[in-house]
Automatic annotation (TrEMBL):
Top-level division of the source organism's lineage: Eukaryota
SUPFAM superfamilies reported for this sequence: PEBP-like
InterPro entries reported in the protein's UniProt record: PEBP, PEBP-like_sf, PEBP_euk
Name under which the protein is recorded: Flowering locus T
Length: 129
């Protein structure tokens, strides 16, 4: 169900607004030992209000989650931008820091967030702590 990038539509009254979407896995590589947290799966910026991610600038292309062990949380966070802005891709997908990213680009608090659980097909069981 996660092979293709999610369809994300952004509502908004202010047609001058732009948004940045971040998708991370805070449980990589395993929930019991998440030393790659946060793993960046997708980064899109300059998404115009009242459109979808396909109208934005895909900074880091979508990478399908492929958990090997346990149940992973995949988190999508949406930030409102102060203006159109060039956002740079990180050197690595692992150890991405959403809070620091938002601070660097002066995004402030998220305007929306959602998460879903994901596990390997033919799952490996429950969350290990």
């Amino acid at each position: 169900m996660v092979i293709n990038q999610p369809s994300v539509e952004i509502e908004g009254d202010d047609l001058q607004s732009f948004y940045t979407l971040v998708m991370v896995d805070p449980d990589a590589p395993t929930p019991s030992n998440p030393y790659h947290k946060e793993y960046l799966h997708w980064l899109v910026n300059d998404i115009p209000a009242s459109t979808g991610v396909t109208f934005g600038n895909e900074v880091v292309s979508y990478e399908c989650p492929r958990p090997t062990l346990g149940i992973h949380r995949l988190v999508l966070v949406l930030f409102r931008q102060l203006r159109r802005e060039i956002v740079y891709a990180p050197e690595n997908r692992q150890n991405f820091d959403t809070r620091n990213f938002a601070k660097v680009y002066n995004f402030g608090l998220p305007v929306a967030a959602v998460y879903f659980n994901c596990q390997r097909e033919n799952g490996t069981g429950g969350r290990r702590i």
